[in-house]
Amino acid sequence: MNTESIRMAIRNGEHSGPTSGISGDKVQANLAILPKEYAFDFLLFAMRNNKPVPIIEVLEAGGFVSRYAKNSDIRTDVPLYNIYKDGELLETVSDITNYWRDDFVTFLIGCSFTFEQAILDAGINIKHIDEGRNVAMYKTNIKTEPAGIFSGDTVVSMRPFKKELVDKVTEITNEFPNMHGGPVHAGDPAAIGIEDIDAPDYGDAIEIAPDEVPVFWACGVTPQNVVLNAKPEILISHAPGHMFITDINNEEYKN
Predict the structure, then answer these.
(1) E.C. number, please (predicted)?
(2) Are 30 and 224 in contact (CB under 8 A)?
(3) Strands 136-143 and 244-249
(4) How far apart (Å, rounded) are the C-alpha atoms in residues 215 and 208?
(5) Is 237 helix (H, G, I), strand (E, B) or coil?
(6) How far apart are CA 223 and CA 52, in angstroms?
(7) I need a surface site. Which of 116, 169, 188, 216 has the fewest CB within 10 A?
(8) Helices 166-174 and 113-121 sit at what angle, rounded to 10 degrees?
């Protein structure tokens, strides 16, 4: 199925689950939609924190068609959206048309699903994909650099790998610096402020076998964590793991 067909399946409600592994070699994007009055602060925040918030595209105020996704509609083509008002999660919906405003600025943010495909292409299995689960994501004590109203800690995604594969997956993901790049940590979760590895803040818990090491990457859910501090009037984002699928080839982001 091509990417336009996948977006249509999402728009029509035929696909409503996580998007990990469904778009082959095409880039998936995290989403952050804010009123124009917050857009400069957010763009500055992203520029200062490129690892967790690598910007792919910024749409004009009121625009909802991505230049990187044919016949797309940002308002309908993500399986699930989180609606935050004043820093609180109001609801999770499959269509934001009723929320849409002419002053909304949409940010598409790089996603680790790009480097996941590169890991799979190297013949290395990824546990949450094998198990049909959403990737496990955690709040950490890794500080971001503040900008305007935005500040807070980094969210990470975790994938366990056998000890002998950690160097290889690090090497592969380092080749995608604008898709979160290499890991920010491997090993003891407590070292980055994660108290219970079995209780992710977002996504699904993934069992870590005795011969496996948890490996952590900066994650595009970070803006959702940061917005809890900033409390803007409204933020619309993707529900973690439910991405916007573009027509861009992953290889275009490989160094």
Answers:
(1) 4.2.1.-
(2) no
(3) unpaired
(4) 10
(5) strand
(6) 8
(7) 188
(8) 120
Give the lowest-confidence range in 5-9, 170-174, 247-251: 247-251
Structure tokens at 126: 């990824």
Residues 6+ apart with CB under 8 A from 213: 160, 161, 162, 163, 166, 186, 187
For residue 223, is pLDDT > 90? no
Q: What predicted TM-score, i.e. pTM, was given to this entire model?
A: 0.91
CB 213 within 8 A of CB 161: yes
60 burial class (0-12, 13-18, 19+ CB within 10 angstroms)? exposed
Q: Which position has the token pair 């809890």?
A: 228
- Decide: 139 and 155 in contact? Cβ < 8 Å: yes
**Sign of the torsion angle spanned by Cα atoms 200, 150, 50, 6:** positive
User: Long-range CB contacts (< 8 A, 24+ apart) of 4-10?
Assistant: 4/69, 4/70, 4/71, 4/72, 4/247, 6/245, 7/69, 7/71, 7/72, 7/77, 7/245, 10/76, 10/77, 10/78, 10/79, 10/245
User: Angle at the Cα of 91 (from 149 to 73), degrees rounded to 5?
Assistant: 80
Q: Return the bridge partners of 98, or none.
A: none
DSSP tag of 147: B
Tokens of 89: 């999660």
Ordered structural domains, the chain, with CATH = 3-112+228-249 (3.40.1640.10), 114-218 (3.30.2040.10)
Are the C-beta atoms of residues 123 and 14 closer than 8 Å to each other? no
- Which residues are bridge partners to 35 per DSSP? 104
- Report residue 100 as tokens: 């849409």
